[in-house]
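The data are quoted verbatim here:
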Amino acid sequence: MKTLKRNQTHRQVLFLQKLLQKIGYTLPITGFFDELTDRFVRDFQQKQPLGVDGIVGTKTWKHLLTKHYDFSLNIKNYILTNNEWFPDYIEKDTIYLHHTAGLHRPDYTIDWWEKDSPPGKVYRVGTSFVIGRKALNGDSKWDSVTYRAFNEIYWCHHLGTKFSNNKQLNQKSIGIEICCLGPLVLEDNEFYYKGNHRTIKVPANNVCTLESPWRGHLYFQKYTDAQIEECKRLILTLAFIFDIPLANISYNRKWFDLHQDAKDGKPGVWAHCNVRADKTDCFPQPELISMLNSLYEDAKTFLPSQNSLESFKSNFVKKNDLNNPEIEHYTEDLNFTEYNGYYSK
């Protein structure tokens, strides 16, 4: 989060002023840290108590967010039970993109995280957001529908690296899962997903064929246009709220390789494949690359919609019956078996 003080003009001042409004202070949202904003920040600091200096730094942001962060982001809340994630506030500076290695429903993905732990253990593995997709039969009910699994100011394991800084990488990042089967195989002119627990036939109109194999695979279930657009909206919204930097670089196929900067914790937008050689999420689909290349310029003028900054407290979805057999192994990206218990800590 950016440190803010009087006489600054910055997009994050807009967010600060919205937070102050949510608390009950009456002030216009202008993006300029004026005398009134300064007065209300000092009043808030005095009531915590915090050092009263009018500067919104790490401690003031922590108090503001842990007590008053309540924004719908125009998504549905499908929250994991409290022991499935860590209720520790860690400042966020990174977004990680994943795909689920599963089918189209975001709720079933979260349901599987809810029930994937073996008896007597809890594996806190998941991402804050899951973006649904069009079903294999063409039903678009879930396409781009996004569910929140836990509040994004908190954290959960979603990277599973063996790096010494693995915990910190997970703590300071927000994960976005895109529902997608991932790599496919072509057999007898038909495409199939072959996971650890099932084989699924995939229609040809769902397939992205790369120009050459990437990490051993030529065919993938493609991310839908609606998913990519929703992913972009989420990235821009989260970057706006948390002041996450969006790099002015040229995204291309090479960007999907392993990156030392990602391993070192450089802030920004990364994908699971940037820190795991054994992962294929996300893969270099041309439409995804185009979206990533649009982020830097579009962020300059992006403002979250008014609806996305409304309270999420009334936007909860009724939970499913976890005994539904369709939920079993619905996603394989964050499979608890690869975490070996260490990542539950």
